[in-house]
Write a structure and sequence with these properties.
Layout (H helix, E strand, L loop, with lengths): L5 H13 L3 H7 E9 L2 E5 H8 L6 E12 L2 E10 L3 E12 L2 E14 L2 E3 L4
Helix pairs in contact: 1-2
């Protein structure tokens, strides 16, 4: 990726997910990239693409609500609308190493369907 601001890199990654532009995402991540979510504990880059890269045809759209950048770290909170009426809001923590994303940690928020809270399984 050409040197851009941290916020621009995050925006480009989210846009790439919607357009299924895996090459852009691969280019944005460092070789030693790690990903953590409630389902994944510090998985490597190869495992991330195997488990997490899917077609975005189930997504109606998403809205980046806020991006906070402090040095090599950033938080982004977004609302995602899936086709069929389900929505959810997540926050992701990004760590950069130069122009590359070295780590992403995802924190899941509440999910809604047709405007009503969908209780999560424990």
């Amino acid at each position: 990726m050409v040197s851009t601001s941290r916020a621009d890199t995050i925006r480009a990654i989210f846009a790439a997910y919607l357009s299924n532009n895996r090459n852009l995402v691969e280019d944005a991540l460092s070789d030693d990239f790690r990903f953590t979510s409630p389902y994944d504990d510090s998985i490597d880059r190869q495992t991330y693409f195997k488990r997490c890269w899917k077609s975005s045809d189930w997504i109606e759209g998403h809205e980046l609500e806020r991006i906070f950048v402090e040095g090599d770290e950033a938080f982004v909170t977004y609302r995602c609308a899936a086709k069929g009426g389900k929505t959810f809001r997540n926050t992701e923590f990004f760590v950069f190493d130069g122009d590359k994303v070295k780590r992403i940690e995802v924190y899941f928020g509440a999910s809604y369907e047709d405007g009503r809270l969908v209780p999560q399984q424990r």
